[in-house]
Amino acid sequence: MPDDTARARRRTGAGIALALTLVLGAVLAGERQEDDDTACAPRTVASWAPDDGLTSAFARYGDDGTRSDDWTGGDGTHSVRLPDGRLLWLFSDTFLGQVHRPPNPVGEAYAWRDVTAPLVRNSAVLAREGRPEATLAAPLFPDPVPGTWRWPVAARVEARSPGATERVLRVLLWVRRNAPYPWIYGEPLATEVATLSLPALRLESVATVLDQRHVGDLSRRLLFGTTLAEEEGWTYVFGGDDGRPASRPASHAYVARVPEGALADPAAWEFWNGSGWQTRARPAPVLGDGRRTGVGSAFTVTRDGGTYVLFTMAAGARGPTTVTAYWACAPTGPWDGPAGAFTPALPGPGTAAYNPQAHPELSRDGRLVLSYDVNRLETSSAAVMLGRNVSRYRPRFVTVRLGPPG
Known about the structure:
- 12% of the residues lie in helices and 39% in strands.
- By secondary structure, the chain is mostly beta strands.
- It has a single domain, classed as Tachylectin-2, Chain A, CATH 2.115.10.
- Strand 9 and strand 10 (131-135) form a beta hairpin.
- It starts with a helix and ends with a strand.
């Protein structure tokens, strides 16, 4: 009995010591996590404000009539920082030509384009610190065949091949073609990657990395490249499906990964299938139930320390006007949200916001710059290509401060 009592006391003492060690370790780990900028923590929109400076910069550039072949408006707003410090803005459908201003603007008067204003499927504008300075010859990415076009989406500067010292610009492209209603934004065909030389920005090649023509159900076709994130030698490329394309409801988000330097190599792409990464598998969605949660056809992902933050138009009735956010500790999720919804300004009634995109290269003072595109609410193909009122087809900008939910 004395031996058993002694052993029990020793076990009790050891247990108390272990418990104290675990508690102390947890406290120290918590302190380290608070001090560690790479730790994952819940994040959502703590506050936001219009960025009138950037919005006005694009309005001034679009209204400038010194050239007839430069950008006067567009959507699909993406940006990428080039090694020489310039910022390259990439746009999808773009109006060129001249802008006319009323001599004595009063009431509902607005600046407008002629109905014959040239429309190209994509364009690129060079800028310094976000302020546009010059439009490259448009379209930058030619149509593959008549009736089919390319929309540029996310881009990054990376090694020409894994381990190489030479850098090139890689631009993700969505390939679509004309299609009947309800496919007013075109039938999704494939995801491509364009390679451009630096610093000249000469288009060298275009490679197909995911062909979807074999998928019979158009609503299940996936396009990748709406946004990307970089971490530990990998480029994570996010994509989605169109769902019901005419109304743009909540769609599903997917993610692929590619080693740094290999975006243009289709054999290097791996897709998340719900439990692991595979090169030949039907990807599984990482976000979206088709009702309360999900993404628009274009969304954005950025990083705040060790946290991934996703911005998208809200699902449901508030979708055409409201931006909301999700957060996760990994690109594959699980994604928590939606939360932090806000409604940015629109240029008058009958318009909608879409395609929120993060521009971390312009972020300052702890605030993230987001752009959003605007257009009319009509779902006819003619209305989507609205060109008269210039304020209804130009990007607008806000700054967002991230913080813990609640």
